[in-house]
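User: Fold this; tokens only.

Assistant: Input:
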Amino acid sequence: MAGRHGRHRAPLRDDLSVDYDGYADHCRWLVANGCDGVVPNGSLGEYQTLTPQERTKVIETAVAAVGGGNVMAGAGAYGAAESRRWAEQAGEAGCGSILLLPPNSYRADERAVVAHYREVARAGVPIVAYNNPYDTKVDLTPALLARLHEEGLIVAVKEFTGDVRRAYELAELAPGLDLLIGSDDVLLELAVAGAVGWIAGYPNALPASSTALYRAAVAGDLETALPLYRALHPLLRWDSKTDFVQAIKLSMDLAGRHGGPCRQPRQPLTDEQAAIVRAATEKALAEGLR
């Protein structure tokens, strides 16, 4: 699978209910501004705080807004049985693929990881593995990813470690496995290393500029990409911080898009954090980034 997707979140009203109409509008707006598709029910979508009914409706809303082939549904859950149910729901809704963490909240060994992906693969929906050892405490190493790919369980990986060296080892061990950029602040480095997609955070606030950066980076047009990357990096680096959801939502508000509040356990940014995000966002907007 090649191409670019925009990771994004379900907008919440002030009473913390999900604004599905606003969500559909946001999906269409992202695609209109250059994103190839959307990735609902991921960490930025606060999927852990959504009810099963909300998660289902989020997927159905995204599919209705931009077409199922352009939707990569998050299927993260505590265990393989639940993740398989979300994969089946995504398939029934018409999604083109799912984004799948290893076992969530359980420090799984390699045997458990392989069994997890085998079980979810039985749903028959193409799987993009999501490697985020910071949150899951499970590291999908290049060797383990190669094993999953060789068995036909995954078609791509969202790589979030920030370790660019892994891209080259992965290309050697599993040349047919697509590498997707997973953290915004190593976009250029992973694009140069051969990434073919970006599951992104900050395009939710600045999609046109983010799209231009990505397209230039994967084309090897550093003359265009590097100045954009430098200009956006004060914001992109928030994608790798604990408070990334709150930061991106604040930037959206400042850019004229509804970001809104977060559900607990996430708390609002501190005054100091908000000032940093606000200054970086206002500077980007003043420089014409959109």
